[in-house]
């Protein structure tokens, strides 16, 4: 990760570097716990640390797949304006709220692993992040202000907005992981 590139937009690279640093910090933080601890749910209707990590991975991976598919047929894209900014602000408010929200079906519930190893999870996530970085290395600057990414709750935002969503979403669930560890594993 943090592969040196010459083609990537500096703003995207800066956002990716932040995401990668936070991921590396999280992996260092949780690797000290046993597989049993990382896979143990704090209560029946809650996610384990590993499941929370998979939720984040699946969200990021599904978002990238969506963008790739969307751009594969050369769609007509709207310029992002005030509405896209308001949608992103709404998403930020939602992610910073103390309220629990139901995750989209495809990245929750039975779609999360019952048990997975830390190392397999870490390797998969780092691989996905590298795929994201490689895709964005060739992302045309003229598309950065277009409404491309469609968030399931708020609608269309830009690619930089998608990366900001990844960051805020990560922060929200990192707090959840720390709470699980603090209250159930120590």
Describe the structure.
The protein is mainly alpha-helical. The protein has one domain: dinb family like domain (Four Helix Bundle (Hemerythrin (Met), subunit A)). It is built from 6 helices and 2 strands, in the order αααααββα. The protein has a two-stranded antiparallel ribbon. A hairpin with a 3-residue loop joins β1 and β2. α1 runs antiparallel to α5.
Overall geometry: globular
Using the coordinates shown, work out and report the CATH topology.
Four Helix Bundle (Hemerythrin (Met), subunit A)
Q: Could you estimate the helical fraction of the residues in percent?
A: 55-70%
Number of helical elements: 6
Structural class assignment: mainly alpha
Overall structural domain count: 1
Terminal Cα separation, in Å? 31 Å
Q: CATH homologous superfamily name?
A: dinb family like domain
Keywords:
186 residues, mainly alpha, Four Helix Bundle (Hemerythrin (Met), subunit A), 6 helices, 60% helix, 3% strand, globular
List the helices and strands and how they pair.
Blueprint: H1 10-30, H2 35-39, H3 49-72, H4 82-96, H5 118-137, E1 149-151, E2 155-157, H6 159-184
Antiparallel strand pairs: 1-2
Helix pairs in contact: 1-5, 1-6, 3-5, 3-6, 4-6
